[in-house]
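Format notes (please read before filing issues)

Several people have asked whether sequences and structure tokens are stored in separate files. They are not. Every record keeps both together, in the order shown below: the sequence lines, then the token lines. Line labels are part of the format and must not be stripped during preprocessing.
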Amino acid sequence: MNDMDDGASWAARDFETHRDHLRAVAYRMLGSLSEADDAVQEAWLRLARSDTSEVQNLRGWLTTVVARVCLDMLRSRATRREDPLDVHVPDPIVSTLSNADPEQEAVLSDSVGLALLVVLDTLTPAERLAFVLHDIFAVPFEEVGSIIDRSPSAAKQLASRARARLRGTGSTSASAFMVDQRKHREVVDAFLAASRAGDFEGLLALLDPDVVLRADAGAGPMGPSRILHGAAAVAGQAKRYAELARFARPVLVNGLAGVVVIRDGQPLSLLSVHVRDGKIVELDIIADPERLQRLGVTA
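Then the structure lines:
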């Protein structure tokens, strides 16, 4: 019994050393914090049931397990999605400017922001897995192929297709979504100031001509959910909500400057901004009260 207990203790300690890495992989694979935690928990259960005495690289073994679990979850998600036109913004990681959660910071240690997760949502499950594992976590294509039961060359082709989607957004790789945090903050502050003032021309000056706004409002009072294209449409929307902009407060969204609107002690919306070349190219808004509560967005 003691030997079994000792084995379980060693397995638990070994697993904990890799938990942050596994959660980071699962979060990028799924774009959902709760599902990422479920995938990591499933990896632990499989480790506890397995004989890993011959495993030389436990981190790699666990990464493979988590990747396969996430792949199954993505495929299940794809089959049950009823309306492909639904507006969905991936789960962000939200923290205050002065009180970032160390556990969340570990998940975002190589973060490229929420904008990349939005693009990843457009990929097939196999494309997403190939891109995330190889381009973000440097897993060789030989290992990627074994996870999806494809050859290394097929896995390489899947990652190439994913990069083609990135090029369609004006980016060529995951690193292209990384930004100068100080400049990003300056643009977000300027956007907030222009919104509060109802300054239409000021808003237009900050927006890329092809800017996209996604608003996931659920059944909340800020609905309906919508997608807007173009600087004029997005600036007009921001101007219409100038009154609410007075209640906006700065937060970090996936490690980058964002905005939360709280009125009468209740969170109304969370705004993530993607900036490229000094212009706002994407705005992602969560205004679904249930999601805001689940994400821990509070006053």
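For reference, the curators noted about this record: The chain is about 55% helix and 15% strand. The chain has two domains: 2-84+116-174, 181-294.
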